[in-house]
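Lecture notes, continued. The same structure-token format from the folding unit now serves as the input rather than the output. Read the line below as a description of shape only.
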């Protein structure tokens, strides 16, 4: 399968629309190749950061896969008419494809970085059940600082994983990959945000039918109003201002 970036109308970003089975096939190829790859995802928060932070943008521009993770981004891409089937099949958050890791051939070593100690341990145990033939190791990411980052780099160098799930929240996880990728051993590095707590069962997932209606934001707002309110009510206006400024700047 040849992956191509597709342009998202209005938002001015490119992404790699994949279904779960296509993502599994992609990971099969990446693991077999044994070289460094990066997988990230686009939602409105990442689009805002893409247009406001050059370092964040540089990581996305160089990443091998940029998934459609967010209903507004997905629906805008759907206007292109390029989807082979229902457009919501291409909405691929981390918790959509992680349960399918058991279908990835040759996956024997997985590292999980992020969340608190309890959530990390539970996520490691869950992944060990999903991929029973793999060695799964974890490192919590709470109170992340330069010292912990150096320890993580050394830990990964010793572990030599094939797949790394890094869930430090956006944009910290992306910035860690941006500044340390050259120091890390070859692997598939996936920025997974809060998925570690979700697969651990500590953070409750929204019903999938709600996500397919593009209303997962309402679920998160209900459960975590302080954390999510700005992203829901404030950030879209910031993004709009960035896009308007970009439009006027490009027309000069």
């Amino acid at each position: 399968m040849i992956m191509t970036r597709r342009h998202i109308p209005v938002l001015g970003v490119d992404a790699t629309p994949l279904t779960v089975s296509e993502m599994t096939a992609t990971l099969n190829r990446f693991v077999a190749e044994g070289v460094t790859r990066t997988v990230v995802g686009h939602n409105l928060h990442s689009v805002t950061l893409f247009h406001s932070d050059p370092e964040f943008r540089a990581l996305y521009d160089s990443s091998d896969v940029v998934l459609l993770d967010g209903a507004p981004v997905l629906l805008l891409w759907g206007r292109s008419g390029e989807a082979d089937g229902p457009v919501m099949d291409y909405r691929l958050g981390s918790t959509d494809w992680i349960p399918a890791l058991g279908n990835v051939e040759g996956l024997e070593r997985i590292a999980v970085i992020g969340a608190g100690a309890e959530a990390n341990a539970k996520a490691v145990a869950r992944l060990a059940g999903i991929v029973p033939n793999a060695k799964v190791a974890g490192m919590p990411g709470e109170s992340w600082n330069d010292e912990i980052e150096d320890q993580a780099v050394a830990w990964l160098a010793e572990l030599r994983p094939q797949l790394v799930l890094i869930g430090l929240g956006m944009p910290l996880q992306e910035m860690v990959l941006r500044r340390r990728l050259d120091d890390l051993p070859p692997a598939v590095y996936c920025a997974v945000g809060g998925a570690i707590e979700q697969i651990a069962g500590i953070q409750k997932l929204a019903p999938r039918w709600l996500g397919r209606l593009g209303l997962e934001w309402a679920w998160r707002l209900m459960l975590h109003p302080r954390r999510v309110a700005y992203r829901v009510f404030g950030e879209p206006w910031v993004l709009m201002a960035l896009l308007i400024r970009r439009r006027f700047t490009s027309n000069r």
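Point for the exam: The chain has twelve helices and eight strands.
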